[in-house]
Amino acid sequence: MLKKLPLWAKIFIGMGLGILFGLISVWVEWETFTTNWVKPWGTIFLKLLKLIAVPLIFVSLVKGISSLTDITKLSRIGYKTIVIYLITTVFATTVGLAMVNIFKPGDVFPESSTGNNSVARWKSDRNRPGNLRSSPRSSFLRI
């Protein structure tokens, strides 16, 4: 059944399941499970995405520029690219700020688990005697 679904439907199903898991984990108070077992996979995914996306964009731009036969087209393409980039950046920033101000996503979490409290906990864990500063997991996640 899942093979017949289009990609956009699979993405929306995954997003819905992620939101559902997030709501259930806040309700059941699975903070340690989520922090220790789910968050590292998200961090790895985002870092791998950055690792792939930046070179892919760079190579596609270089390939596009090098395939131009008429050098006068380069200035028109450059201006169009900059204008489209600026318009989409302003639009994305506006939509993101509007969504954050409307929905206020951080209000769901209790004050004890947000803000300076986590920074203080990180500093105390780092300076605790016998605590390794770099575990294999943290080294892998910092790549």
Short description:
By secondary structure, the chain is mainly α. It contains 5 helices and no strands. The two termini are 37 Å apart.
- What's the main sheet like? none
Unreliable spans are none
Portion in beta strands: under 5%
The geometry reads as elongated
Provide the succession of SSEs: HHHHH
Number of helices: 5
Count of beta strands:
0
> What structural category do the secondary elements indicate?
mainly alpha
Helix content: over 70%
Spatial extent as radius of gyration: 22 Å
Average of pLDDT: 80
Question: In whole angstroms, how far apart are the ends?
Answer: 37 Å
Task: Walk me through what this model shows.
There is one protein chain. The protein has 143 residues and is an all-alpha fold. 76% of the residues lie in helices and 0% in strands. The chain is built from 5 helices and no strands. The chain has helices spanning 7-28, 31-66, 72-103, 116-127, 136-141. The longest helix is centred in the middle third of the chain and has 36 residues, at 31-66.
Write the layout of secondary structure elements.
Blueprint: H1 7-28, H2 31-66, H3 72-103, H4 116-127, H5 136-141
Key phrases:
143 residues; mainly alpha; 5 helices; elongated
